[in-house]
């Protein structure tokens, strides 16, 4: 298949050159499998195999793109796509800058993140994995929901400026299990992210779920008071927060357009807690990394925040072209974000619950439906969901109804940041909006942030009040 | 091709499948143009084709899709294989509500196909808009046009054969500016659809010019405004925020798959239970909501859903009482079982898929609020003692069971003693869904009722982005927390 892909791209390049068209061609292939569970049954078992070709044609300062979902064998349709993009570019308005088309200096093939045995794990194996993970945990009251999503991604790029090709192939799996109580309305969840088949460990999931269920079954959910709490965030919540920082904090183009809470002159300044460091690290396999970006820049660990000091914005090639700066190797489908460890030896929920504390502490593993209230201030809002716990000062524990937090990033990762676990985990943040793009953020297992406000609390077991 | 598809359906039925359907997309085209500060940052088009096959076997679904339709046997067999393995883990066997088999065609009402308009004309349209937005106080200008054109052929093992040809146009303009504190603010305009068609002709240059001037003027008012304080007031929601309130806390909350727990793994559930239908006072007696897929001028109107069920106009909330839900064929039987009574007599025709490579799920059609009897916007303002008028969505965050929410809006106008006083920036409001709708104290008349388009509603795993609409009037809610 690889040879056919490379050969197809070379044929298309030759066709573009023959037609006098300056073009870059992006090949994207996904083979996806999803087994979805609800009400303790397989609610959907689906697969898709799609080939996308995106052709971008340049004419000086003008640029136009044409994308198609097609078959790899249908070269004539792809050639028609080049003709369409070439016709489009004649009629578009020129940009006020010149978009770059980079020369690939060599052929580059990276299949190091591909494991065929994971990409094509069978229907039977996926079902067996889920059954093993929830064995003894779901029953008439406690229902299983979740997904086992896996597949393979292939991307390849060529352009008319050189005959070299970049080719990447990776495999991934994302498993998420939710156990929900039909009468009491609580939900707990656990997830696993895999890049190769040997990463799969259903027993670990079962252990995490069993621990949560044991505590939820034995505690009656209750409404919290609104007000200020010390909050421990789990890796899922931290990943969501860091993804927002990626969007409205560190992206140079967003900053230039006034859509960032980090300002241009913040570079080199301490704007977060000295406990907080953030790196884009493509050497971390768990993040499904790109070793080179789409323009051919070799990607290496890139410091973004170091001990609270903001080091650098990241620049996509097009933003770099527009604003006249150097691109930083971040023209990728996703970064490889890593939040550095702290020094707190609290790395399991059991250790967290048994940790001495002088105040009630709220544990929020997941943040649901996060959105940006004010990008200039880094102000976000989200609700808790799945497995939250109130860890009381006296060592006991309660199950809280969901609560809402509306807070600034500079508070969460600033002076209120009390500690971070000394071990990390990868949290899979993939969302298939349009095309498979496996993504994970590496974070400490937990972080503690003091004195954050809970602005809204759910009211009852029915979650409503008239 | 249709003959080959029918042969495959018959083959799987003979092999034991209880039900089979296929959606073949001979062609789906999209075009997106985005001009940002005068730069045509995106001029892209796409074309895709393929087929998606759904098989029901021993109470379980299997689905498979491919852009390669040369080997239909392999595609149909894969869907059947997926159903076979799913049938090994069934807790509630899928049963489909009855429907009538139909041979039909649907064409969305359009006068001018936007794909017949040259790219040069489209970019000129954007350039003119961009120039009109390029005024004092504006630091960022974004003008966008998105066009969609789908041909969908639906066939099923019950004898239905439906062809749909649908065209959509999604235009928007947006301006941003920076206030004295260095904070960015925005104001945008997406046209309401008051015409009876939805082709290129809906892009009325005069309407855009008028609204370009308005949003620039309002942005400049926001840049000089005070920040909205924390308070408890009546909120008067204009259609460009009321549509999103309706979308998030009536629409999604009343999707029957969410109610029955089929989205718990990702999007969440609903505070509504099957036993609530006919019983729950969802809102005050002024609240009547409906799912109406029959209005001509909205992307929520599509003729037939992807179960092959005809578009309908159904009540969801009748004078405050919950009476209906957004359903496909699968969920209604199960909901009746759960509730131990007949709640639903059949599908409401709302099962839709984003594309050939996604499985249909319950999706909103046009989730509308009926106009009320409380007059015009001015009439509602005049009877408001202490309130705030809100417009334009900036952010939205909803509890996982749609039980509570937080919205940030682009602009707010304070109301004191029946008069509009000051503009405020960073206005937000939050509440608990049922309590909020029970505080509905005024619903504007037909002069305030607008159909707003939604082109980016996300749901499901794998995620599907859907287009739909909301016809909503101006609404006032009392005792709402604002400014957080």
Give the terminus-to-terminus CA distance of chain B: 57 Å
Work out the number of β strands of chain A.
22
List the quaternary state of the chains: heterodimer
Residue share in β-strands of chain B: 35-45%
Q: Rg of chain B, please?
A: 23 Å
Topology, please?
The complex is a heterodimer of chains A (466) and B (484).
Chain A: H1 2-18, E1 22-38, E2 41-59, E3 62-70, H2 75-91, E4 108-113, H3 116-119, H4 123-133, E5 142-159, E6 162-181, E7 187-194, H5 202-217, E8 227-234, H6 235-248, H7 252-256, E9 278-280, E10 302-306, E11 309-310, H8 317-323, E12 337-339, H9 349-354, E13 361-364, E14 366-374, E15 379-385, E16 389-391, E17 397-398, E18 403-408, H10 409-412, E19 417-420, E20 424-428, E21 440-444, E22 446-457
Parallel strand pairs in A: 4-6, 8-13
Antiparallel strand pairs in A: 1-2, 1-5, 2-3, 5-6, 6-7, 8-22, 9-10, 9-12, 10-11, 13-16, 14-15, 15-18, 16-17, 18-22, 19-22, 20-21
Helix pairs in contact in A: 1-2, 4-5
Chain B: H1 2-14, E1 19-36, E2 39-57, E3 60-66, H2 72-86, E4 103-107, H3 119-133, E5 140-156, E6 161-178, E7 184-189, H4 205-223, E8 226-227, E9 231-237, H5 239-251, H6 256-259, E10 289-292, E11 313-318, E12 321-322, H7 329-339, E13 351-352, E14 361-362, E15 367-369, H8 377-382, E16 386-398, E17 404-416, E18 419-425, E19 428-432, H9 433-438, E20 440-443, E21 450-459, E22 464-472, E23 475-482
Parallel strand pairs in B: 4-6, 8-18, 9-16
Antiparallel strand pairs in B: 1-2, 1-5, 2-3, 5-6, 6-7, 9-23, 10-11, 10-15, 11-12, 13-14, 16-17, 17-18, 17-19, 19-23, 20-23, 21-22
Helix pairs in contact in B: 1-2, 3-4
């Amino acid at each position: 298949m690889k040879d056919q892909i490379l050969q197809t791209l070379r044929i298309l390049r030759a066709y573009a050159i023959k037609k006098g068209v300056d073009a870059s061609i992006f090949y994207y292939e996904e083979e996806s499998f999803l087994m979805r569970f609800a009400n303790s049954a397989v609610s959907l078992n689906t697969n898709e195999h799609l080939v996308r070709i995106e052709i971008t044609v340049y004419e000086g300062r003008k640029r136009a793109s044409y994308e198609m979902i097609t078959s790899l064998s249908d070269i004539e349709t792809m050639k028609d796509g080049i003709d369409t993009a070439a016709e489009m570019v004649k009629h578009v308005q020129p940009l006020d800058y010149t978009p770059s088309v980079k020369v690939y200096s060599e052929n580059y093939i990276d299949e190091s993140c591909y494991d065929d045995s994971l990409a094509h794990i069978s229907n039977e194996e996926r079902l067996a994995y889920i059954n093993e993970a929830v064995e003894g945990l779901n029953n008439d009251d406690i229902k299983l929901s979740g997904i086992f999503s896996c597949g393979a991604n292939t991307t390849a790029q060529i352009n008319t400026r050189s005959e070299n090709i970049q080719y990447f192939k990776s495999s991934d799996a994302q498993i998420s299990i939710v156990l929900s109580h039909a009468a009491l309305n609580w939900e707990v969840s656990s997830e696993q992210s895999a890049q190769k088949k040997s990463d799969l460990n259903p027993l670990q999931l079962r252990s995490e779920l069993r621990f949560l269920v044991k505590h939820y079954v034995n505690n009656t959910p209750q409404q919290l008071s609104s007000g200020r709490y010390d909050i421990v965030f789990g890796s899922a919540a931290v990943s969501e927060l860091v993804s927002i920082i990626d969007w409205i904090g560190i992206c140079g183009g967003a900053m230039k357009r006034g859509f960032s809470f980090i300002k241009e002159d913040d570079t080199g300044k301490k704007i977060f807690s000295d406990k907080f460091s953030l790196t884009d690290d493509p050497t971390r396999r768990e993040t499904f990394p790109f070793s080179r970006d789409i323009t051919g820049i070799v990607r290496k660990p890139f410091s973004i925040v170091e001990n609270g000091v903001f080091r650098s914005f990241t620049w996509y090639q097009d933003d770099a072209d527009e604003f006249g700066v150097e691109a930083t190797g971040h023209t990728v489908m996703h970064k490889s974000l890593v939040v550095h460890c702290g020094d707190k030896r609290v790395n399991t929920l059991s250790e967290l619950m048994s940790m001495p504390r002088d105040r009630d502490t709220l544990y929020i593993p997941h943040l649901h439906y996060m959105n940006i209230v004010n990008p200039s201030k880094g102000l976000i809002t989200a609700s808790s969901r799945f497995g939250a716990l109130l860890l009381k000062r006296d060592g006991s524990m309660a199950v809280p109804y969901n609560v809402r937090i509306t807070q600034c990033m500079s508070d969460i990762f600033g002076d209120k940041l009390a500690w971070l676990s000394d071990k990390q985990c990868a949290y899979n943040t993939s969302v298939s909006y349009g095309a498979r793009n496996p993504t994970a953020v590496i974070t400490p297992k937990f972080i503690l942030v003091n004195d954050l406000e809970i602005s809204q609390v759910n009211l009852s077991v029915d979650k409503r009040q008239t | 091709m249709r003959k080959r598809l029918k042969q495959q359906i018959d083959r799987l039925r003979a092999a034991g499948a209880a039900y089979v359907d296929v959606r073949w997309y001979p062609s789906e085209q999209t075009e997106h143009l985005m001009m940002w500060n005068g730069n045509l940052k995106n001029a892209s088009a796409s074309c895709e084709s393929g087929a998606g096959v759904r098989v029901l076997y021993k109470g379980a679904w299997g689905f498979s899709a491919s852009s390669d339709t040369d080997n239909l046997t392999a595609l149909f067999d894969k869907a059947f294989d997926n159903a076979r393995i799913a049938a090994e883990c069934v807790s509630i066997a899928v049963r489909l509500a009855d429907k009538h088999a139909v041979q039909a065609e649907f064409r969305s009402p359009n006068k001018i196909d936007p794909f017949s308009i040259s790219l040069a004309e489209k970019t000129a349209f954007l350039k003119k808009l961009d120039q009109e937005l390029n005024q004092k106080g504006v630091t960022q200008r974004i003008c966008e046009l998105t066009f969609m054109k789908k041909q969908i052929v639906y066939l099923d093992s019950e004898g239905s054969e439906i062809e749909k040809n649908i065209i959509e146009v999604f235009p928007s303009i947006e301006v941003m500016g920076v206030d004295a504190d260095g904070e960015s603010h925005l104001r945008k305009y997406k046209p309401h659809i008051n015409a009876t068609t939805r082709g290129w002709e809906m892009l009325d240059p005069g309407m855009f010019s008028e609204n370009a001037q308005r949003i620039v003027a309002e942005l400049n008012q926001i840049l000089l405004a005070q920040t909205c304080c924390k308070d408890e007031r009546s909120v008067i929601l204009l259609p460009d925020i009321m549509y999103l309130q309706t979308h998030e806390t009536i629409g999604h909350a009343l999707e029957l798959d969410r109610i029955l727990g089929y989205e718990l793994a990702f999007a969440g559930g609903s505070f509504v239970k099957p036993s609530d239908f006919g019983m729950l006072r969802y809102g005050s007696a002024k609240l009547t909501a409906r799912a109406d897929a029959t209005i001509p001028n909205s992307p929520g109107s599509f003729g037939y859903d992807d179960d092959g069920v005809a578009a309908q106009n159904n009540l969801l909330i009748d004078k405050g009482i919950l009476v209906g839900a957004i359903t496909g064929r699968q969920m209604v039987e199960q909901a009746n079982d759960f509730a131990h009574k007949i709640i639903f007599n059949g599908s409401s025709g709302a099962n839709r898929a984003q594309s050939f490579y996604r499985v249909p799920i319950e999706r909103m059609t046009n989730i509308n609020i009926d106009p009320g009897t409380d007059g015009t916007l001015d009439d509602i303002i005049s009877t408001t003692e202490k309130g705030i008028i809100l417009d334009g969505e900036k952010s939205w965050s909803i509890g996982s069971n749609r039980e509570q929410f937080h919205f940030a809006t682009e602009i707010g106008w304070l109301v004191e003693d029946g008069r509009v006083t000051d503009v405020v920036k960073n206005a937000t409001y939050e509440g608990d869904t049922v309590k909020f709708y029970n505080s509905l104290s005024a619903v504007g008349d037909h002069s305030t009722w607008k159909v707003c388009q939604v082109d980016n509603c996300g749901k499901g795993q794998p995620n599907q982005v859907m287009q739909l609409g909301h016809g909503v009037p101006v609404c006032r809610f009392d005792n709402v927390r604002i400014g957080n």
